[in-house]
Amino acid sequence: MKTRVTEILGIKYPIVQGGLAYLAYAELAAAVSNAGGLGQITAATLGSPEKLREEIRKVRTLTDKPFAVNFAIARHDGHYKELLEVAIEEKVPAISITGANPQPVFERIKEENIKTLVLVAGVRQAQKAEKLGADIVIVVGQEGGGHLGREDIGTMVLTPRVVDSVSIPVLASGGIGDGRGLLAALALGAEGIEMGTRFIATQECVHANEKYKQAILHAKETDTVIIKRTLGSPGRVLKSEYTLNIIEREKEGATYEDLQDIISGKANCRYIYDGNETDGFGWVGQVIGLLNDIPTVQALFDEMIFTVEKGLSRIDNIIGERIHR
Hints:
Blueprint: H1 4-9, E1 15-17, H2 26-34, E2 39-42, H3 49-62, E3 67-72, H4 73-76, H5 81-89, E4 94-98, H6 103-108, E5 115-120, H7 123-132, E6 136-140, E7 146-147, H8 155-165, E8 170-173, H9 179-187, E9 193-195, H10 197-200, H11 210-218, E10 224-227, E11 235-238, H12 241-251, H13 256-259, H14 265-272, H15 297-324
Helix pairs in contact: 2-3, 3-5, 9-15
């Protein structure tokens, strides 16, 4: 496949792995890059510049292909700068930026040869990212897992809206987990996709507890809920007694301080690392309704590309004769 995304990033397929807090480490990132996509490691949850440097170097022992480092800058509370310096020193090919105003990041890397991807949830954010100099924007619809936009706009509408509003290439994200989603995204004007939840349910996502992966496989698209909506930072998670309790407390008027312990990264880790569903939670998107296996990343890519080719053939059978006249 050839789009502006593959050309900018130097990859074979326009498929990008999401930043995946606490899960996007070297093994998964390298597997995605080796399969022809763009793998990412997460800076936010590594905790220190030394650990980030170690993880970057570990990726390079596992792949010679391009990869990225994800900066969820809101999570850092301003402390991301020392981590960014490591990425610059290690000359990473690309970074992605999520969670807050990316302007300080762009100011720092202005003279660096680093490709930039910015996650957005609306037209204005996409236009601002382009103005700042982003190479690519990733637009996430409300079907996605983890933190989302506040407007509840679906990927089907939001993707072409953003495509029409900027001149830089767009990646679609949210509700995409197979070749059908990739083909649909291309039809909407995007030049590739980002996937998060789908990559959790792969063999190379070694940090995810098996209980978490099995929950993803056996859940339906209706088995997710939005937490933290009243706090202004909505995020989609697996439905459970734990997450329903969070929502109930929000309805009762709980503040961030009231909820801090039960919505924390530690609570997230208690489930995704330890499988403790009574004292933790896991981020997922509605795409869980489409997932039924835990393949290797390479097998996933092979299946996706086969599905795209099969879908193109189906479309050609439907409208091809008219086009070819």
